[in-house]
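Record type: monomer structure entry
Structure origin: computed from sequence
Chain ID: A
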Amino acid sequence: MASKQILEKLISGQEAAHLVVLQDTTKQSHLPILHAFLSSSISRKHGLVLVCLQDPPARLLPLLGSYANAVCIDLCSQLPSYAASTKPGPQFGSVKIRPALPSELGDVLALELKQLESPKTTVLFDSFNPLLDWMPLSLIAATVKNLAFCTNDSCRVVLPIHTDSLPETKTLLSIESILHQHMSTHIKILHLKTHLKAISDPFDKSIKRSQLEFQSVDANALEFIVDLEWRKRSGKAINELSLVRCGEASSITISSADHLKPAPTPDAVQPNQSTKSDPTANLSFNLTLTDEQRQAKDQVVLPYLEAQHESESTGGTIHYDPDEDDDFDEEDPDADLDI
């Protein structure tokens, strides 16, 4: 029986995911993976916190069905364009709705996590991009830090981000650097055909041309690639490539996609190959020896090596060759003593 993919273990809660950054593009949505986290949390009776930023609670809460061990933090209703007539009340079925300002997110989330009192808890954002419009980078960094502080082995936070719809005033590099500092799990959603086209050899006839052509109607396909980076508490990072197939009722099937990894380039440096530069290169003088110079060097007899050529040990005898300038004192140093 094949072992489970790490992605499957993280979704089911068998491994601690902590702060999960779910990154997608317009070519392939993160929603199947986000629904998998939601379904897994409900089936395993986790405490559930929904943070609504992109969609109103009335659109997301029906996904919970009759599940009651949940609370909704409503940040979406603070938008000026949000219609007051569509705002839900403080209760939607059996789920409490807690309105809050974006600047209050850390304090409100910590309070709701204490009130849930569940052995395991999942915090799900519908999207993190609206906060990028409201907040400066300094406040975004503080918010991400507070979210990471709430996570532990029994509490995980899933944070989706759309990398191709960021505000013009903020760059992907600055946002990724903030997330990369605090996240422990990075799930990158890749469009399957785009990935195949990027790694394929144009001279490889084993892949049909029809499999590589991207069509606009094929966006958000039922099969996609997940590039996973998972950091353990020990500091070890594990990378994994998975193939995800969507089934009925938002179910997914996860399998290994190691055969879809890009092939190493022939110019890549091998692990056992030294990458140090030659310090003797580009010098104005020569530090190497010719064969004649090396032979003459080997024939030089070094002094004080007689002991290495003796066949028998002399038992610790000291060999001394007196020098003509040696000054020996023949007088008895104790002659003036009455001994």
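Annotation 1: The two ends are 98 Å apart (CA to CA).
Annotation 2: The first strand starts at residue 19 and ends at 24.
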